[in-house]
Amino acid sequence: MGSIAPMTADQIALIKATVPVLVEHGNTITTVFYRNMLEAHPELNTVFNTSNQVNGHQPRALAGALYAYASHIDDLSALSAAVELICNKHASLYIKPEDYNIVGKYLLEAMGEVLGAALTPEIHDAWGAAYWQLADIMIGREKQLYEQSEGWTDWRDFKIVDKVKESDEITSFYLAPVDGKPLPAFQPGQYISVQTYVPALKYSQARQYSLSDKPRSEYYRISVKKETFVNSADPAAVTQPGHISNVLHDTLNKGDTLQVSHPYGDFFLSATETDTAHPVVLISAGVGLTPLTSILNTLTSNCPSNRKLHFVHGARKSGARAFSEHIASLMKEYPNLNATFFTSHPSAEDKEGVDYHHAGRVNLQKIDKKDLFLDDAKAQYFICGPEKFMTDMESHLKGQGVSTDRIKMELFGTGGVPH
Ligand SMILES: NC(=O)C1=CN([C@@H]2O[C@H](COP(=O)(O)OP(=O)(O)OC[C@H]3O[C@@H](n4cnc5c(N)ncnc54)[C@H](OP(=O)(O)O)[C@@H]3O)[C@@H](O)[C@H]2O)C=CC1
Fold first, then answer.
1. Is the CB of residue 159 less than 8 Å from the CB of residue 178?
2. Residues 119 and 160 in one domain
3. Catalytic annotation, pick one of 142, 169, 273, 394
4. How far separated are the first and last CA of the chain, in Å rounded?
5. Quick one: 174 and 141 in the same domain?
6. Residue 170 and residue 166: Cα distance in Å, rounded?
7. Ranges of residues in the chain whose predicted pLDDT is under 50
8. ipTM above 0.85, yes or no
9. Given Cys at both, which of 235, 310, 342, 402 links 314, Cβ 3.0 to 4.6 Å?
């Protein structure tokens, strides 16, 4: 492990002074970093998402994280939500303390390769100290997360016990542990990592999928959209499939095995919130409905019958929407559940008032304020979907007076470095 001596005031000032350098060269540094590290350690290809390497998302996200870190080096509390999110993801990938040695070495070497003589020995040492300061915090948090997982501290074999098509593009997988032991409960909204061999790459890959049902001791359910990646330089050419979702949809079937992590994630309805009486509004778009369906299924099976719930969902067309029949049948059982469906591009067969309520993207202004409980100072809001969708929904709610602490959303990544 590297040095974890506290950073000096001079080193903190040097890190702050490199913020403009990260704006200019951050993406190049992280692209060189991933290239060199994965060339020297091909075994790490299983840990890093190859699709996100090809589309440039991962280097951009890491550059954004470095930029955010350097900008807040003198006030790390501003980063605590981002650190919590990353540590949960790391735990779900079984990242170990020794992995930080490799990342630190290749990151500093990439800075040297890109910046040349501009990376003076003092700046090099300041970044070394900064890296280990953050790594130490993360290693500590990840250790706590592993300790909380009741001995489940490595990949575990699971069998697909059912595979159910939920919409034109989303299929559910029911996953039961091969060892037959009861599964730990999770907080509704959390995810698992799923790892399987990808023949096209000749190595395994892991992805995080939100659990889409309430906790059950016999199986976990995930509901996966079949993804195709579009080449941004040539949008007509689909060049890189979403590896795991395609293997799951096309290759793996009932009876097949794959590897699963303990559930993790910091976007959830906590156990203490399941037995209160405040209204809950669940707002999602596309496959973002999965963690919110887990929350919905938990609330409708646990909470007092007077609790008011509203499920708001946007889909491209009604055939792409998962769980519409499930939600309709829950509404019959549970009169306090309301649902509003938006369809952005209704197909010729889609009927307004039958298959959906409103044409267009989710627009909260089209929903009566009282059905969104905007006058209830305790109502809670959960949002999941494309990033811009979430930030738009959040600003609308804030504009209507909803306080930040009552809005939860799952924002992966830092948005990269500013342009
Ligand atoms: N736990 C988590 O954090 C999870 C997150 N997700 C995220 O949810 C997202 C769902 O994507 P996917 O199913 O592919 O979505 P789709 O592309 O199928 O879009 C779903 C709907 O969202 C609309 N939409 C897209 N962007 C916006 C926007 N900026 N504002 C308002 N509406 C918008 C689309 O409208 P239009 O047709 O006009 O584009 C469409 O009606 C992904 O980004 C995924 O990462 C998903 C599952 C779990």
1. yes
2. no
3. 142
4. 35
5. no
6. 5
7. 1-3, 238, 414
8. yes
9. 342
The one-character DSSP state at 76 is G
The contacts of residue 221 (CB under 8 Å, 6+ apart) are 172, 173, 174, 175, 211, 212, 213
Residue 207 to residue 333: CA distance in whole angstroms? 35
Let me know if residue 1 belongs to a domain.
Answer: no
Ligand 1 atom closest to Cα of residue 225: 13
What's the CATH code of the domain at 104?
1.10.490.10
CA-based angle 358:360:366, to the nearest 5? 50
Nearest atom in ligand 1 to 210's CA = 1
What's 211's domain CATH number? Answer: 2.40.30.10
- For residue 291, the one-letter residue type is P
Cα–ligand 1 centroid distance for 242 (angstroms): 16
Do 14 and 139 fall within a single domain?
yes
Residue 298's domain comprises 271-411
For residues 417 and 389, what is the distance between their CA atoms, to the nearest angstrom? Answer: 20
- Domain shared by 373 and 278, yes or no: yes
The domain that holds 320 is classified in CATH as: 3.40.50.80
The DSSP secondary structure of 368-417, one letter per residue, reads -GGGGTTT-TT-EEEEESSHHHHHHHHHHHHHTT--GGGEEE---S---S
Ligand 1 atom 43: residue of nearest CA: 386
- Whether the model clears a pTM of 0.90, i.e. scores above it, the answer is yes
Q: Which of 148, 179, 212 is the last residue of a domain?
A: 148
